[in-house]
């Protein structure tokens, strides 16, 4: 009995074959995959880990597919398949990879540039389609997060959440990720995952009195893991957002990032509440800051200008969201060489508005797509994110342009 499943993901068709690959099954497989290739021109990846018998007909089908596609990629061939390829002298005729993910990475990057995988446990907090105001949502997330972090098994919860998130990314055809971790617990599973990209250790401090401690905690985690970077996965730093980071922390952390040349990520200009608070010191976020007795001074400028004044833009950070921006902000982002991540589904669910994607692209600012965490997004599938972006920016940005944003490696 032969079982074949096909997953079509952008530039790739991933085919999982299990059981016997012989006779009529091999002919049927060839016909189906040849048609798929001729229609989609997508790279063919064959996961052969479950094949327990490969006949002459099966081998012939693989050779014909190799000739047709010019480059058939075999992922994790079983011992039985390896043996047959060796005996027939064909083991060098095909490109082999240890895993389907390694094979996918050899084709093209598929990047989800903004996740918080350790928050995969928080899917129940994701607002329904009608949305929830940003500030209300983040207050709920902070409360739920504190409850989990006070529980005895929180490291297990976060670690399992990160592992489940990684599995969801790979299932969705992702090869590169930009992940944020506040606990440091997603670092090790990401280094082991085979995904490339950056995992950013997060620091925030709404009060000056905790700035040093928060900086040192993040630095310790970064220094513990940086020497263990591998598989194209790097360690970076993220300062959460302008309204949660005291200038004392900005100063220390930016000096450190500059000296160590760390990849840097910042949430910025995400919500109308953030914009109004930073620009005018008013609105719901101003009330919130007063309630928690934050001693971050109001900068009375736009979120992006504030980052520039702090010296953060000069470090070319990856800016998450960048929805609440004007033409001058976009020009400053472009001039700094910074990049942005567009997360339209999270923006819509958190009532943050539409990022002016067409203006960023007109200024040649590098734009990535990201799903954000499951606490504000219905899935970790960046292809679904792209579909929403196509609908949201219809008439402003073409679908082809949006699809290309997926394939920019981080
Ligand atoms: Zn985020």
Q: What's a concise summary of this model?
A:
The mean pLDDT is 96.
List the helices and strands and how they pair.
Blueprint: E1 2-9, E2 12-21, H1 23-40, E3 43-54, H2 56-69, E4 73-75, H3 79-87, E5 95-97, H4 100-107, E6 111-115, H5 134-150, H6 154-171, E7 176-181, H7 187-193, E8 196-203, H8 211-226, E9 233-239, H9 247-260, E10 264-268, H10 272-280, H11 284-291, H12 303-310, E11 318-321, H13 327-336, E12 339-342, H14 344-349, H15 357-362, E13 367-369, H16 382-392, H17 399-406
Parallel strand pairs: 2-3, 3-4, 4-5, 6-7, 7-8, 8-9, 9-10, 10-11, 11-12, 12-13
Antiparallel strand pairs: 1-2
Helix pairs in contact: 1-2, 8-9, 16-17
Residues 114, 116, 267, 320, 372 line the site of zinc ion.
Explain the overall architecture:
- This protein is an alpha/beta fold.
- It folds into two domains: 2-107, Transcription Regulator spoIIAA (2-Layer Sandwich), CATH 3.30.750; 111-406, Alpha-Beta Barrel (TIM Barrel), CATH 3.20.20.140.
- 46% of the residues lie in helices and 19% in strands.
- The protein has 17 helices and 13 strands.
- The strands form two sheets. Strands 6-7-8-9-10-11-12-13 form an eight-stranded parallel beta sheet, with helices on both faces. Strands 1-2-3-4-5 form a five-stranded mixed beta sheet, sandwiched between helices.
- Strand 8 (196-203), helix 8 (211-226) and strand 9 form a beta-alpha-beta unit.
- The chain is elongated.
- The model has no long low-confidence stretch (mean pLDDT 96).
- Bound molecules: zinc ion.
């Amino acid at each position: 009995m032969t079982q074949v499943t096909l997953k079509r993901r952008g530039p790739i068709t991933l085919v999982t074959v299990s059981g016997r690959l012989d006779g009529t099954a091999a002919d049927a497989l060839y016909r189906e995959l040849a048609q798929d290739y001729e229609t989609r021109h997508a790279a063919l990846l064959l996961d052969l880990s479950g094949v327990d018998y490969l006949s002459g007909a099966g081998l012939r089908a693989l050779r014909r597919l190799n000739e047709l596609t010019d480059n058939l990629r075999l992922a994790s061939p079983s011992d039985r398949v390896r043996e047959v390829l060796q005996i027939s002298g064909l083991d060098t005729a095909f490109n082999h990879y240890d895993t389907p993910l390694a094979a996918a990475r050899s084709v093209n990057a598929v990047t989800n540039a903004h996740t918080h995988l350790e928050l995969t446990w928080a899917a129940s907090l994701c607002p329904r389609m009608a949305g929830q105001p940003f500030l209300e949502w983040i207050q709920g997330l902070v409360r739920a997060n504190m409850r989990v972090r006070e529980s005895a098994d929180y490291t297990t919860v976060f670690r399992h959440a990160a592992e489940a998130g990684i599995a969801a990314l790979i299932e969705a055809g992702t090869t590169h990720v930009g992940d944020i971790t506040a606990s440091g617990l997603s670092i090790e599973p990401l280094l082991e995952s085979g995904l490339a990209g950056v995992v950013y250790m997060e620091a925030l401090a709404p009060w000056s009195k905790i700035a040093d401690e928060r900086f040192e905690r993040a630095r310790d985690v970064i220094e513990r893991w940086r020497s263990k970077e591998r598989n194209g996965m790097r360690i970076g730093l993220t300062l959460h957002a302008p309204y949660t980071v005291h200038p004392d922390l900005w100063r220390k952390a930016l000096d450190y990032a500059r000296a160590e040349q760390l990849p840097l990520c910042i949430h910025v200009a995400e919500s109308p509440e953030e914009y109004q608070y930073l620009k005018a010191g008013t609105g719901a976020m101003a009330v919130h800051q007063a309630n928690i007795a934050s001693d971050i001074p109001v900068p009375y400028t736009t979120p992006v200008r504030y980052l520039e004044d702090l010296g953060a833009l000069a470090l070319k950070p990856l800016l998450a969201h960048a929805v609440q921006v004007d033409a001058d902000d976009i020009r400053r982002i472009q001039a700094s060489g910074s990049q942005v991540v567009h997360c339209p589904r999270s923006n819509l669910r958190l009532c943050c508005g539409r990022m002016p994607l067409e203006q960023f692209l007109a200024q040649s600012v590098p734009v990535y797509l990201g799903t954000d965490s499951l606490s504000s997004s219905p899935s970790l599938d960046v292809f679904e994110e792209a579909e929403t972006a196509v609908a949201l920016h219809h008439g402003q940005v073409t679908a082809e342009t949006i699809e290309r944003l997926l394939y920019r490696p981080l």
